[in-house]
Design brief:
By secondary structure, the chain is of the alpha+beta class. It has twelve helices and twelve strands. Strands 2-1-5-4-3 form a five-stranded antiparallel β-sheet, with helices on both faces. The relative contact order is 0.06. Bound molecules: adenosine-5'-diphosphate. The site of adenosine-5'-diphosphate (ADP) has 19 residues, from α9 and α11.
């Protein structure tokens, strides 16, 4: 037997119906139309079936009453014109009356019962009945009425039993006849309603088939009609999805003059203006980027000259009067800052232009962290900070660009020392099968949530007047974040005022790996407990980048 597919497994059907109901406008519309029209057709069908059934019964009843009346009168006139006097003659008379009743009333079921309570008569024939299996259907109520009212007709609906134990609906009609010499007799004639029932069944079947066909027709028609509307809507939805995902050239085909065509035209108009505005913005930003890059380039040569001249002056400062000497020193540090800013600007404009190429090589991040720590040790000593490295893992070689990662670490550790208020700075390195993470934790000033939200913005500083020892262009973390994302890694931050900060860099071991988690915790383990007391939610500025 072939394996059942997901759709053909019956236990999956309710789920499929539910998901189709949620996701398909067409399915919903067709289901609602079919349900409502099916209900309407059912109500009309039941009403028609009941009223046709009633009508059939009533007409058969009047026919039956007429026939029975005619048969009874014929029998009575037979008795009236007879001069029978002994039992055999009366018996014969009764038999021929029964035959004539059967002949005139199209019924084989005739019962003649002597009305009880009369004087016993020797000539009175015994009760006779051809009801057979149905003899019990003559109810006592009917009998009582017939016995009490001479000359009237009474009827009752019954179930007749056939010879082969089948049952058919029927009507029993009763009345009194007077047999000469023998006295009063009850006459019962039973009529079958089998024909009427067969007609009703046929009508019901026809109604059922017609109703079903109508429901199918309604389903097909509503499916086709909804398709007319849904197809262009689906195209519009797909097109807007593509537009939203950046494919600005997509348009909806415009056909006809109807409301759908109007929708398509206005959508396309909107897409046109969106595309032209985005193009304008892109052009503008390209011009700006090129301007920044060109200016930075152009400034390099004169700056080198200024720097050389400044160096000469700086070297000679001891020979200058004190005020001039201080100016030479100032010039020296500001030129250094200027150079730093220029190189950062050039770097970020390279990222903006998308012209950054990774020079990845297998790199041990623990050694890289050690290098960065060593290069900043003297700064840490001047600030009184103790630089520590904790590396339970991370000794495996990750495919990264060492120059960029060294720059990120230099920036993070430099910031931690700058803002660490002389407290220890802990650099942790750990790894798992997919990722290597480095976190830089300080216990300094920390930042508020509002500050954390801006920490990766260009030229943003929490407090521009804060005393700076190294560089400090305000571009360091912006470049670090670009460096992380170009590696498909994350640079995230947790910080809390008074508790310090923790920056965590997570990098995939190879470019093929998609990051899902980091080997190091953020917020750091030693922050969570303090957090509970402070009731402060950690900021996650910079979030995961892909
Ligand atoms: P820069 O350090 O050159 O000013 P960054 O982009 O490296 O630029 O940092 C931007 C700002 O983020 C800093 O000026 C500082 O206010 C804040 N900052 C960065 N690291 C820390 C930290 N470890 N603790 C407190 N504030 C920090």
């Amino acid at each position: 037997m072939p394996a059942l597919t997901y759709r053909s497994r019956p236990r999956n059907w309710p789920r499929l119906v539910r998901s189709s109901w949620r996701s398909s406008l067409q399915f919903r519309t067709v289901t609602v139309s079919v349900a409502l029209s099916g209900l309407a057709i059912l109500i009309v069908g039941v009403y028609m079936s009941v009223s046709i059934g009633n009508d059939l019964f009533q007409s058969r009843l009047s026919q039956v009453l007429l026939e029975s009346d005619r048969a009874t009168s014929a029998a009575q006139s037979l008795f009236d014109s007879s001069d029978a006097t002994d039992r055999v003659q009366v018996q014969n008379l009764l038999s021929s009356a029964r035959t004539s009743i059967s002949a005139t009333s199209s019924s084989r079921l005739v019962a003649v019962l002597r009305v009880p309570g009369q004087d016993p008569s020797t000539v009175a024939p015994l009760d006779s009945s051809t009801f057979g299996a149905s003899s019990g259907v003559i109810g006592s109520d009917l009998r009582a009425e017939v016995q009490a009212n001479n000359g009237d007709q009474f009827w009752q609906s019954v179930t007749l039993f056939g010879d082969d134990a089948t049952t058919v609906p029927g009507i029993v009609v009763g009345s009194q006849i007077t047999v000469p010499v023998a006295g009063r007799y009850e006459l019962y004639i039973a009529y079958s309603l089998q024909d009427a029932e067969a007609t009703l069944l046929f009508v019901q079947q026809t109604l059922g088939v017609a109703g079903l066909a109508l429901v199918l027709l309604i389903a097909a028609v509503s499916w086709i009609v909804v398709r007319f509307v849904v197809t262009p809507l689906r195209v519009a939805a797909e097109t807007s999805q593509k537009l939203a995902s950046g494919d600005l050239a997509v348009r909806i085909p415009e056909k006809g003059e109807d409301v759908i065509a109007t929708l398509a035209r206005s959508f396309n108009g909107m897409a046109d203006s969106l595309q032209s505005q985005i193009r304008e913005l892109a052009d503008l930003s390209e011009v700006q980027q090129r301007f920044v890059s060109d200016v930075s380039h152009e400034l390099r040569t004169p700056l080198t000259t200024i720097r050389l001249a400044g160096d000469v002056l700086y070297d000679q400062r001891a020979n200058f009067p004190p005020a001039t000497g201080r100016t030479a020193e100032l010039l020296h540090t500001q030129v250094e800052r200027f150079e730093l800013l220029l190189s950062d600007l050039l770097e970020i404009s390279r990222y903006d232009a998308g012209s950054v190429e990774l020079e990845s090589e297998p790199t041990n991040l623990v050694y890289l962290a050690e290098d960065a720590i060593d290069s900043l040790r003297s700064l840490a000593e001047t600030k009184g900070s103790d630089l520590r490295l904790v590396a339970p893992g991370g000794y495996l070689n990750a495919d990264v660009d060492p120059r960029r990662i060294r720059r990120v670490l230099h920036n993070l550790i430099g910031n931690a020392i700058e803002h660490g208020e002389g407290k220890p700075v802990v650099v942790s390195v750990d790894s798992d099968a997919n990722a290597v993470a480095i976190s830089v934790r300080d216990y300094g000033l920390g930042m508020s949530q509002a500050e954390v939200a801006h920490v990766f913005d260009r030229f943003w500083r929490a407090d521009p007047s804060r005393q700076r020892t190294i560089g400090g262009t305000g571009l360091g973390l912006a470049i670090a974040r670009e460096d992380a994302s170009v590696h498909k890694g994350w640079l995230q931050v947790w910080s809390s005022p008074g508790q310090g900060s923790c920056f965590r860099l997570t990098l995939p071991v190879t470019a093929r790996v998609q990051l899902e988690s980091s080997p190091l915790p953020l917020p750091p383990d030693d922050a969570t407990a303090a957090l509970g007391e402070a009731g402060h939610v950690p900021g996650q500025g910079g979030g995961p980048h892909d």
